[in-house]
Structures are given as C-alpha cells and as structure tokens.
Amino acid sequence: MPIDYQTHFPVMLPQVLEALLPQDNALYVDATFGNGGYTEAILNAANCKVIALDRDPNVLPRVKELKNLYGDRIDFRAGNFGDFAELVPEEIDGAVFDIGVSSMQLDQAERGFSFAKDAPLDMRMSQSGTTAADLVNSLPEKDLADLIYLYGEERKSRQIAAKICLIRKTKKIETTKQLAEIIYTVLHRSQNSIDPATRTFQALRIAVNNELTELQNGLAGATFRLKPNGRLAVVDFHSLEDRIVKTFFKNNTGKARHVSRYKALPQEQNNAIFKECSKVILPSEEELQMNSRSRSAKLRFAVKQ
User: Fold this and answer.
1) What is the pLDDT of residue 258?
2) Amino acid 101: pLDDT
3) Which of 18, 161, 205, 210 is in the most buried spot, having the most CB atoms within 10 Å?
C-alpha cells in the first residue's frame, strides 16, 4: 500500500524502523510522541512495548486513542525528553527522537509556531513558562540579536533586532503576523527561496523551549538507558541540531587515542559507547515530493556496545 505522506505521516518512517529494527518482547522509547506516528508503527512492527514521552498536553487525546488500540503495550509519560534518564528508569532496547516542532503543533495556529498563520506569539511546547512574545518584548537589543544569530544563523540578526526594539517602543509585539511583518522590512520576500522570517522564528522557538540543551541531555540519557546492542535513532531538521547529533555519535564511537607520559608511542583506549554509527540518511525522492516538511530532515542512528 502506498504511503500517504499528507496525514501526519512521520518523517522518514521506513528508514527509522530500519534503524530501530523492532523486536518482539523488547522495550522502546518514542521520546517525541507528537501525533504518535512512530509509536504506532513500532507497535505494529513487533509484539513489543513503547514508552512514549511528550511535554505537550495536547497529545493526550491521541495517547488515549492508542491506549484503546494497544492497551498496556503503550506507556505514556508526560515530560521533556531532556529528562530522559529520570522519566525512563528502565533499561531499553531502542529509542527514537524526532527533533523540532511537530506537524500537529504547526497546524494549530493558536500555538504561534508558524508565521504562515496569524496567532499569539507563543511557541511553548509545554504551554508553560516564557513565551516568544516575552523574549521579543523584553530582551535587550544585543541579547536579542545574539539569540537570532546563534539559534537562527541569521546574518541580518542585528538589523532585525534593532527594528524589533524600535517598534516595541510604541507597540507591544504580540502576534506572529506582527513579528513577520517587521522582519519583512529588513529582509524582503522573493520567490523560490525560504521565507525571510524562517530563521528568526526558528531561533525564538529554540530559545523558548531550550531545545539544544534538552537535545544534548536527551541523547545522553537515552544512551545511558540503552542495553548492549540497543539502538538510538534521531531525526533532525536543521544544522544546529544535526551538529549536536553528529558530534555526540562521533565522540562516542570508535577508539580514543592518547599519548602516554611514560611511553613513546600513542596508546589506544577502547572507551567507545557505540559500536556502530550510521552515515547521514536522507528522505526518499518519493517523500520529498509528497511531504514538503521532510526536505531538511536527516536521520542518524547508532548501536550501543
């Protein structure tokens, strides 16, 4: 049966299943439950159990739906995947992370993740804490420019921050449309290129949700809980995330070399956590054509010693 990429089909699902290799009687973690696509596919692939994590309370109706179908084979735990080791004290056979904002969150205009739909400037995955509007209206100009440059890799960050700070002196910036229109006065829209607001919105979302630190903590926690031969798969969507994943896998795979103070030759120490680490895996041509949200996706996986 052909895959329907338009119905919240999770990005790179066939490749993720191939990376995880679900087995009967095994325990897996879907660290970013979202709409439950990976969880349901794993449960269908083998007679196993899945612990599903998510900090977004809006996923609960979908959790209930899957509980009705799979019973105690799915165990939902509310929380942030950055707290993986605390949320999952069990040893596990595999884990999958789908990093970034979910399709469900993007499609809910009121969440403020997308500049394509006018909504309050929120962007909180957990729906608690500091909002994007709080940052835009309160950060000093230099701090705001640094945030947009660091997390959005936006070269015009200083001009954008200056314009934001000028506008907010007379009017609070409260909606996605307001912010996008301010950005468009610095960066003009053109056909066949990404929207000029993309990088600034990305930067704010990462900052609001502390995404990069949570990713580092989540990878470490999942790796700690993996059994020998356990498999860790990560799908990411932009260079900052991918750099963290690539570096984490590289630093924990293979032999480390150090020079002994007492011997002339370098000594090798096999202190690797992973015995295998994949090269980057990209979406299929079919998926790229059918699902625009997959265009920047990258999958990496590793197998524990």
Assistant:
1) 42
2) 64
3) 161
- 110-209 domain in CATH 1.10.150.170? yes
Q: What DSSP string describes 95-141?
A: EEEE-S--HHHHH-GGG---TTS--BS---SSS-S--HHHHHHHS-H
Cα–Cα distance, 242 to 105 (Å, whole number) = 21
Please report where in the chains the tokens 């498999």 appear, as a residue: 231
Give residue 13's identity as a one-letter amino acid code.
L
| Phi/psi-derived region of residue 71, left when phi > 0, alpha when psi is between -120 and 50, beta in every other case | left
**Confidence (pTM):** 0.84
Of the CATH numbers 3.40.50.150, 3.40.50.300, 3.20.80.10, 3.20.20.70, which one belongs to the domain with range 13-98+211-304?
Answer: 3.40.50.150
- Say if CB 183 and CB 199 are below 8 A apart: no
Three state DSSP letters for 240-258: HHHHHHHHHHHHCECCEEE
E strands, the chain, are: 27-30, 49-54, 74-78, 92-98, 226-236, 256-259, 266-269, 274-277, 298-304
| Phi (first) and psi of residue 94, to 5 degrees | -175, 160
Say how far apart CA 58 and CA 36 lie, in whole Å.
12
CA distance linking residue 197 with residue 188, whole number of Å:
10
